[in-house]
């Protein structure tokens, strides 16, 4: 099984 | 005050066609330079960023930055009623009414449709998107967007697209880019060779590879990303094993739409 990481881990809050 | 006009609804219809499938609401940032749109899907796996510079509009007046969250499903419904050659006007006052007005005017019979959209919350966007250095990407593939859409459709019809976890493995070496998926009773591989300039095809498939790379992505999201083909003939896919993949469609010389998503990684 492979996991899907969230995109928010790479883009910070504006 | 914000007042924009497009003499053809086509561009905005295509924008909504490209994003309303996967994203339910978006943040619209209007400034002097143009429109920046951002949206994230409900599971925060994919992000889309759209830029339309002021030159994309036939009339563009924005005397103060204005940011608003809008419901894309409602907008898509309104735009489905619009004809391609309708004139669109987008207006918002700073009267704190928290609404924006879209007007469609048919040039044939002068019929006018007016839609007011209330601002809605946007789930977590806008985010700061860094420009990742080129060196971070192991491979970049540029190909016709229609070809990418066809490949995604083929893999979805073969793969078990009902199964939420169907992945497509995109592998790039210096000669070709492979798309692989596993169905219930077998596997499917589509190989795209880098076109030699001698073939002089109208739309080449070009590969820039620093090192071989093979990454797995959720096929449902790939399908949604391929809808960017409404806005551009070419798609550029940038792949890195430790950064978000970027699927970029340049919109003529007036902007771009970029979809971001992380590859799936083995537990």
In short:
Chain A is an all-beta fold and 14 residues long. Chain A has strands at 2-3, 12-13. Chain A is 0% helix and 29% strand.
Number of strands of chain A: 2
Q: How many separate helices of chain A?
A: 0
Mean pLDDT value of chain A: 82
- Please count the helical segments of chain B: 4
Strand content of chain B: 35-45%
Could you say which overall geometry of chain A the principal axes of the C-alpha atoms support?
rod-shaped
Give the spatial strand order of the biggest sheet of chain B.
Answer: 6-2-3-4-19-18-17-11-15
Distance between the termini of chain B: 51 Å
> What are the segments of chain A in which pLDDT stays under 50 over at least 5 consecutive residues?
none
Counted beta strands of chain B: 20
Write the layout of secondary structure elements.
The complex is a heterodimer of chains A (14) and B (267).
Chain A: E1 2-3, E2 12-13
Chain B: E1 2-6, H1 10-19, E2 25-31, E3 34-40, E4 46-53, E5 59-62, E6 66-71, H2 72-81, E7 87-92, E8 99-105, E9 112-118, E10 127-128, E11 139-144, H3 145-158, E12 167-172, E13 176-182, E14 187-193, E15 206-209, E16 213-218, H4 219-225, E17 234-239, E18 245-251, E19 255-261, E20 265-266
Antiparallel strand pairs in B: 1-5, 1-7, 2-3, 2-6, 3-4, 4-19, 7-8, 8-9, 11-15, 11-17, 12-13, 12-16, 13-14, 17-18, 18-19
Helix pairs in contact in B: 1-2, 3-4
Characterization of this structure:
- The complex is a heterodimer of chains A (14) and B (267).
- Chain A has strands at residues 2-3, 12-13.
- With 14 residues, chain A is mostly beta strands.
- Chain B is 15% helix and 44% strand.
- Chain B contains four helices and 20 strands.
- Chain B has helices spanning 10-19, 72-81, 145-158, 219-225, and strands at residues 2-6, 25-31, 34-40, 46-53, 59-62, 66-71, 87-92, 99-105, 112-118, 127-128, 139-144, 167-172, 176-182, 187-193, 206-209, 213-218, 234-239, 245-251, 255-261, 265-266.
- The longest helix of chain B has 14 residues, at 145-158.
- Chain B starts with a strand and ends with a strand.
- The mean pLDDT of chain B is 93.
- Strand 2 of chain A pairs antiparallel with strand 10 (127-128) of chain B.
